[in-house]
Amino acid sequence: MKRFYRDYCGGRFQPFNVRYKETDLWIGVDKFDPAMSKAVLDLLQRLYEQFLELAKVSPRFFSSLEPVQLLEGPSIALRMAQAANRANVGPTAAVAGAIADEIGQFLLKQFGCDEVVVENGGDVFIKCERPIYSLIYAGQSSLSNKVALKLPKGTWGVCTSSAKVGHSLSFGNADAVTVVCRNATIADAFATAYCNMVKNKNDVESLLRVAINEDVLGVVVIFEDVLGVRGQFEIVLLDGDDDETHR
Predict the structure, then answer these.
(1) How many domains are there within the chain?
(2) 7 in any annotated domain
(3) What is the Cα–Cα distance from 70 to 102, expressed in whole angstroms?
(4) Where does residue 55 fall: left (phi above 0), alpha (psi -120 to 50 degrees), or beta otherwise?
(5) In a domain, 226, yes or no
(6) What pTM, to 2 d.p., does this model score?
(7) pLDDT at 241
């Protein structure tokens, strides 16, 4: 599937793509090194190997739709299990965000980047030194690509779950539920949980009443022509051509 929403990135970052098995990453950095692509691919391969080994001893970790207790295992899996427990979903609800976090932190530490964006199927790790706009793609909704979150300097996880876009399992009907947390692992888990809760327009308001907690800092819900917003971040309207927009 062509991830055409990636075309909305402006010239702020130097972009490159890395693909391995089910993972298709768009990565933007402020300081590009030709060695990055191979280094990221090698890391992805190691993460997949860790998952394969874990599946041999804990297959339920990858099939459960509920939290799974994991006392030992790869660090990425432990973070997924913790995030899933917080959001009351299965661990794989956090896998895309966890991979984005892992790659983002790796680039910051190994290559000395100051700004990094790692987008993994709508789940995004962001480290920015000045404000950045995160445009929300919501499929066929009239609000798709017209609403953005303005994020200040910091490290963020911005993850979107949809019942109508992509192949991920969802028990809701929302066009898009976007969640902002301090990391993408937890944001991914909560985006899945919150999207599951929105089955009709009346559920948008119900979700917003309970959406913000110690983990979740901001939420945007798009259900057809209904927009619901709560949290500490500014919402702006964009036409998709803003140079600061990363997706």
Answers:
(1) 1
(2) no
(3) 19
(4) alpha
(5) yes
(6) 0.90
(7) 46
Q: How far is CA 198 from CA 76, 109, 233, in A?
A: 29, 38, 21
Beta strands in the chain (DSSP E): 14-20, 23-29, 116-120, 123-128, 132-135, 147-151, 154-161, 176-181, 218-223, 226-231, 234-237
Give the pLDDT confidence of 2-30 residue by residue, as tens digits.
333 444 555 789 999 999 999 999 999 99
The closest of 165, 212, 170, 169 to 195, measured between CA atoms, is 170
Stated as kind and residue range, the H or E segment containing 207 is helix 202-210
Total Cβ atoms within 10 A of residue 192: 30
Residue at 246: amino acid letter: H
Q: Is residue 93 part of a domain?
A: yes
CATH code at position 186: 3.10.520.10
Beta bridge pairs of residue 217: none
Structure tokens at 106: 């790796």
Name the residue among 133, 57, 50, 38 with its Cα closest to residue 95.
Answer: 50
Rounded CA gap, 37 and 15, in Å?
A: 11
Q: Which of 144, 180, 141, 145 is nearest to 160 (CA)?
A: 180
Greater confidence (145 vs 3) lies with: 145
Maximum C-alpha span of the chain: 50
Domain that holds residue 49: 12-237
In this structure, what token pair is assigned to residue 107? 């680039």
97 alpha carbon, distance to own chain's centre: 5
Please state the rounded mean pLDDT for residues 137-161: 93
Q: Which amino acid makes up residue 212?
A: I
State pLDDT tens for residues 61-73. 999 999 999 999 9
Q: Is residue 4 part of a domain?
A: no
Distance of CA 244 to the CA centre of its chain: 18
